Amino acid sequence: MKKTLLAAALLAGFATAGVAQAETSVTLYGILDTGYGYQNYKYDHNGADATAKTSGLRSGTVNGNRFGLKGSEDLGNGLRAIFQLEQGFDIGNGQPSSDRQFHRQAFVGLSSDSWGAFTMGRQYSAGVEVGNLISNGWNLGDVDKVFGGVGYANRIDNSFKYVSPDFAGFKLIALYGSEGDDTIERVDGQGWAKSYDPATGKTTDGSSERTSRTSLGLTYANGPISAGASYDRSGRTANDDAITNWNLNAAYDFEVVKLSLAYGQDRNGKLGWAGAAGSYIDGLPSAATYQDFKSNNYHVGLSAPLAGGKLYAGWNYSTSNLDDADKFGDGADNISTYQINYFYPLSKRTGVYTYASYGKNLGYVKDLKGTEAGIGLNHKF
């Protein structure tokens, strides 16, 4: 009788543990992306001559290398506790991409099918999520080389974020973050930024003040149609105008080909911009740091299924007022980038790819040109 009771108790315990495990889940995930790449950047203007040429193993072309943990706990009545912690790294040397432990994402919150999700921590702006709706290139062909607000550098510290449930294809995204006590931009007598960080839109001159970030977005996805709009604002000091950005995009899948279009504007800087001239050749001045800076940005992308994979061709273009006499003058020009790439899936988790890119007047610096090409392997787990 005692053995029977003991066996029943053990079975009940296992059943209870099984229920608890079913209600709580934690997933380890990641992406490994590497291959061979060639880059050649050249600046030749008014007697200046600088070249940066590299080749060899490239890390994170299609996707940035990362690993992370994400999970949820069922709290009942459709309510869940959720979290995500994500770290990036360089697969070529094993080093982390940042001195932060989880610099890509780190948040916790609550989610419900009825009222949406509310999360707190370090997380993506609405501009990034809206930008993800369109087909895109890689590296030099990425839209973040001309558009502000859409690049993955737009991860906002100390932020509160709300994403609504799906209403007939529509979703609302709202974020507010206090980015901490940061040094604020000033420029010297020539108009060059003294120390500019395109990831935050700030520069260093010794002053310090708490800044804030507001980000709003609306997305729509229904069948072959997807579209989105975003607005981002980053405050600076009381004497400096805030950096603002807005973007509109739309895509339609004709099955034979998918067309993506985007347009946006930046004012007083470019948020999370990955296209600063100094990111190609050290020593060149950083553009887009003026208080009265303005840019208009354009994107056209075409993607089509081909031989079991996907072929993409894209063009990105940006005009600005940096060619004004009180700014770069003759030293500035409009950015154009072009890319063609091909991704072939070997399985649901593994694929191979190749790409070629060309850009001119990179970072709005006239006669700064670049070419890239490469092949690689992408694996998700």
Which terms summarize this structure?
single chain, 381 residues, mainly beta, 16-stranded antiparallel beta barrel, two-stranded antiparallel ribbon, 19 strands, globular, disordered N terminus
Characterise this structure.
The chain has about 375 residues and is mainly beta. Helix content is about 5%, strand content about 55%. It is built from two helices and 19 strands. The strands form two sheets. A 16-stranded antiparallel beta barrel has the order 1-3-4-5-6-7-8-11-12-13-14-15-16-17-18-19. Strands 9-10 form a two-stranded antiparallel ribbon. Strand 13 (about 245-255) and strand 14 form a beta hairpin. The longest helix has 22 residues, at about 1-25. The radius of gyration is 23 Å and the shape is globular.
Bulk shape:
globular
| Arithmetic mean of pLDDT | 87
For the largest beta-sheet, the strand count, sense and barrel status come to:
16 strands, antiparallel, barrel
Give the helices and strands as they follow along the chain.
HEEEEEEHEEEEEEEEEEEEE
Beta content comes to over 45%
Q: How do the strands line up in the largest sheet?
A: 1-3-4-5-6-7-8-11-12-13-14-15-16-17-18-19
Summarize the amount of helix as a percent range: under 10%
Our count of helices gives: 2
N-to-C CA distance: 49 Å
Overall number of strands: 19
Q: Structural class of the secondary structure composition?
A: mainly beta
**Rg calculated over all Cα atoms:** 23 Å
Low-pLDDT stretches are 1-22, 181-208
